[in-house]
Amino acid sequence: TLDNFTILRWDAINEEEEYLGFPLMGTPIVAWAEKTEDPIINEWNEAVLSAALITRFSDIIVVHSVSGWALLPLVFLRQNLYTDPRKPVAVEAGVNTYGEPDEMSPVLLTTNFALTFYTVASDIESAKLDCYLVVVDSEGMSVESAVAGRKVTADIIAETLEEYKVGDLVKHRHLVIPGRSARLSGEIQELTGWKVSVGPMDSSGIAKYLEEKWVPDPED
Q1: Which of the listed residues 68, 71, 92, 131 has the most CB atoms within 10 Å of its CB?
Q2: What CA dihedral angle connects 11, 12, 16 and 19, to 10 degrees?
Q3: How confident is the model at residue 218 (pLDDT cuts 50, 70, 90)?
Q4: 160 CB-contact burial (10 Å; exposed 0-12 / middle 13-18 / buried 19+)
Q5: Are 128 and 99 contacting, i.e. CB atoms less than 8 angstroms apart?
Q6: What is the pLDDT of residues 156-203, one digit of tens each?
Q7: Which of 80, 97, 110 lies closest to 201 in space, CA to CA?
Q8: Which Gene3D superfamilies would you find in this protein's record (predicted)?
Q9: Distance CA 35, CA 59 (A)
Q10: In b/e form, how buried is each residue of 197-219, taking b as 16+ CB within 10 angstroms?
Q11: Looking at 9-18, 107-116, 123-132, 198-207, which range is the least confident one?
């Protein structure tokens, strides 16, 4: 079956056989046809066959097991099949808007590592904050790793603020950076002229931080 699936996809691409490009369905459920002393053996065999089919172009698989230990690895395998392990998953750099921010709303900063970005975005949305989130291109690294590896520096942050014209969005000049990038605060302030505040170490504390400390002065 694995060889046949490979041949079908090969011919679909290299021989331009249109009909061989349709979705392929695999049935690892056949692992249950064999009688074993313990059903776990069948689950194991089904999971192994499922993984092999997924890596060999199966678009649909039919399984019998509902055990988490058998299914979750398959989900992770499928979701990461087309990612490059040498290149972290990243989002686009830029400025994201949340809620209905105005010219006095907070300006926050994070990196473009996908996990970091979506965690921060989720915390902002769940707190129903009105703010701007500046996403710096860190080559897909988290805040701490990017700062340590010089993928995010004060110069890069200054260039990002200028490139995306963040200053045109607000009247104040007050930037909140992640707690794990605190070492850059002084240099950012010198390069940009923005007043820099060091935010919480974890994005779950953003709402409380802004409630207690966000009192920008338009003159800053």
Answers
A1: 131
A2: 120
A3: low
A4: buried
A5: yes
A6: 999 999 999 999 999 999 999 999 999 999 999 999 999 999 999 999
A7: 110
A8: 3.40.50.11600, Dihydropteroate synthase-like
A9: 28
A10: bbbbeebeebbebbeeebebeee
A11: 9-18
* In the block, residue with structure tokens 């990017």: 146
Q: What is the set of domains in the chain, with CATH numbers?
A: 2-79 (no CATH), 94-213 (3.40.50.11600)
Q: Is 133 exposed, middle or buried (0-12, 13-18, 19+ CB in 10 A)?
A: buried
Q: Residue 148 to residues 21, 89, 152, 180, 189: CA-CA distances in angstroms?
A: 46, 19, 8, 10, 19
Single-letter amino acid code for the residue at 119 = T
> Which token pair is 152?
């995010």
- Per-residue pLDDT tens for 45-84? 999 999 999 999 999 999 999 999 999 999 989 888 877 7
Structure tokens belonging to residue 44: 């194991």
